[in-house]
Write the structure tokens for this entry.
Amino acid sequence: MDMSIISKLYDLFIILCMMHIGFNENDPNYNKYSGKAKEFIENYKKLKGDSSITEDSPYYKLLSTLSNDYDNFKKKCSDVNCKDILPLQSIEKTQIAVDFSERTSEQLYVQGSEVTSSFRR
């Protein structure tokens, strides 16, 4: 087990616990959660980008569980009109879109080069 990764997962867990402990449906003040939510998202992104965390690893399963719990917290917040907590999916979708656009640009460039060279023949 990589204690560095375990420690980072534990930090995410603590942040999430603090968000749940501080939640008060009678006072759904977003500002109270926004700092912790941003901290969670930053740490989540770093772990999600760690190449040693693969889909078949136990670390990935823990990260997925933490992600699900964050989404549950966001739903609990939105149920009492606490809004604007960034969902994790938007982070992942943004990353996928960037990856896709980079790959598409590379493919178009390569295809364009191949087309140009075929016209020269």
Remarks:
- The radius of gyration is 20 Å.
